[in-house]
UniProtKB/TrEMBL annotation:
Name of this chain's protein: DUF4369 domain-containing protein
Signal peptide bounds: 1-18
Superkingdom of source: Bacteria
Sorted UniProt keywords: Signal
Species assigned in the record: Chryseobacterium zhengzhouense
Amino acid sequence: MKIITMLSLLFLSSAINAQQIIEQEKYQGTIDGKINISFYLKIEETGCPKVVASGVYKYNDNKAGNWILLDTTFSEKNQQYTFVEHYNTGIMLLKRGDDNLQGLWISPDGKKQLKVSLKKLKPTKAEIDKMEDELEKANYNANDC
C-alpha cells in the first residue's frame, strides 16, 4: 500500500508541475524599419495557474545567427510585454495584437529608442521545433553554471 501511495504522490506531483504550452509564435519584422529580425514567443501555463512568456530573437543579417535570450514580464490582460535582453543590451516594450507585435527597442542608457514592427507568421512544426531548440540553448548558455 505504501508503494502505491508513493507512486500516486509522484504522479500527482509531476502532473502539478507540468507546463502546458498555450502559444508558440514566430514573427518577422524590423527594428527601426531597416534591421531585419526573427522573433520567437512562447506562452505557457506553469500551474497555480500562472502564465509565463519567454522568447528569443536574432538579427537576420548576422552571419553567426545567434539568438538573444529575452527575460520577460507581461500583462496577460493587456497583452503588453517587457522583454529585457539577457545581458541587458536592450529592452523591448511590445504590445501584442491579433497578428503582430508593435513597440520600441530601447538601448540600456535610454538614449536610443527605435520602433519595432513584427508580423506573425504561420510556422511549420519543424520551424517551431528549431526555435524551441534555440530558446532552450539560449537558456542553457545564460543560466548554466
